[in-house]
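Lecture notes, part 5. Sequence design as translation. It can be helpful to think of inverse folding as translation between two languages: the language of shapes and the language of residues. The source text, in structure tokens, appears below.
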């Protein structure tokens, strides 16, 4: 599929992912005639995307000139979570030149959140991180119409439905913008620089305030017709379960997520079944999924049971996806990945037991390598892709 892409896009991605490359090597790796390569490089130099970077090592004759992405290229990467904002400004190689992270409540609405994003980006400019942005990439914690650049009926984002996120950022920063679901950008980030590097078919499962799944098929993110593929948090796992934020009963997310785990921890504390949670609740007045993780590390039986129950439910949903899509890897990320190997062991156990042996014989189920940076990394990749797409 990548070979069907325009030459300029393949060339710019190669320089993004590999750094400075000689003209001769570029022609070889892109499998195009040298004159065509030279003409394309000259065109991209004139447009400001590419710059010369000295001479390459000799290959036996006249030394070829190295080319690289223009050192002044800058992309903004924004990862909006349910309770946090992460913003990075990166260069053409997607290396951070400025980074900001702070708590924020997505429920305060798009105007408040995006104003803060713009303030952080303008601060980065004032601090010398960039003169101008070439593109902005954003991930949001809810369904997104990728085509239109707007969130669509996001369950945990009141006020964001159809809000023109892409249009607002494009107007504010004078450059193209792209908006995607947060789990898709995490999958893109993990594919670019994490454990799924060079894996063409995998599932990235985000377990946090909510649960979602980024789907990579044949080297590309699969978003579905309307952009909501992978919304596995709203698959029903218990017909008699609790009400979910989406309005349905017994969704996976209602039974196992950061919010659900915190509620169950409070119940365990108040019922006396978890001394560790009772002690923390008395001291703090509230509990989070992190408290459950720490309780499990300390050996609290109720906390271990809560994590295993959640892993079993998630594993059951993933077993169905494995039988359906036959991925070559499952990556677990998001805030609840900090529940660690108790969670991972339970997911593996259920997936391996309930999926067909042919589908699981060589199926690693692993934790994200990038952790909290998966989102901003993927947003930077998307931003660079949309900027490179302009080089026509």
């Amino acid at each position: 599929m990548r070979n069907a892409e325009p030459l300029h896009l393949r060339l710019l991605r190669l320089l993004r992912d590999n750094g400075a490359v000689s003209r001769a090597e570029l022609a070889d790796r892109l499998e195009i005639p040298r004159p065509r390569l030279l003409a394309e490089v000259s065109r991209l130099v004139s447009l400001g995307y590419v710059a010369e970077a000295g001479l390459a090592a000799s290959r036996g004759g006249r030394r070829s000139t190295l080319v690289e992405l223009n050192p002044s290229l800058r992309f903004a990467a924004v990862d909006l979570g349910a309770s946090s904002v992460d913003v990075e400004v990166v260069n053409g190689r997607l290396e951070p030149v400025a980074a900001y992270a702070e708590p924020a409540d997505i429920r305060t609405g798009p105007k408040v959140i995006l104003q803060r994003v713009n303030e952080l980006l303008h601060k980065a400019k004032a601090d010398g991180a960039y003169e101008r942005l070439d593109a902005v990439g954003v991930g949001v914690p809810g369904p997104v119409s990728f085509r239109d650049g707007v969130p669509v009926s996001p369950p945990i984002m009141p006020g964001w439905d159809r809000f023109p996120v892409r249009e607002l950022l494009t107007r504010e920063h004078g450059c193209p913008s792209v908006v995607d679901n947060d789990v898709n950008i995490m999958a893109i980030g993990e594919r670019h620089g994490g454990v799924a590097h060079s894996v063409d078919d995998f599932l990235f499962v985000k377990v946090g305030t909510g649960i979602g799944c980024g789907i990579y098929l044949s080297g590309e993110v699969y978003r579905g017709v309307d952009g909501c593929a992978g919304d596995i948090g709203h698959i029903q796992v218990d017909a008699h379960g609790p009400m979910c934020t989406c309005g349905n009963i017994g969704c996976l997310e209602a039974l196992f997520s950061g919010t659900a785990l915190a509620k169950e921890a409070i119940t365990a504390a108040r019922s006396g079944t978890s001394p560790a949670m009772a002690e923390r609740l008395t001291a703090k007045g509230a509990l989070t999924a992190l408290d459950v993780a720490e309780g499990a590390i300390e050996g609290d039986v109720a906390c271990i049971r809560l994590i295993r129950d959640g892993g079993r439910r998630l594993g059951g949903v993933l077993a169905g996806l494995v039988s359906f899509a036959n991925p070559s890897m499952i990556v677990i990320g998001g805030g609840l990945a900090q529940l660690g190997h108790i969670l991972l062991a339970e997911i593996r156990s259920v997936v391996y037991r309930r999926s067909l042996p042919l589908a699981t014989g060589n199926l690693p189920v692993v934790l994200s390598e990038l952790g909290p940076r998966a989102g901003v990394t993927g947003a930077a990749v998307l931003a660079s892709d949309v900027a490179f797409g302009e080089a026509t």
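The translated text above is only one of many valid answers, since several sequences can fold into similar shapes. Residues 75-189+373-388 form a domain with the Nucleotidyltransferase; domain 5 fold (CATH 3.30.420.40).
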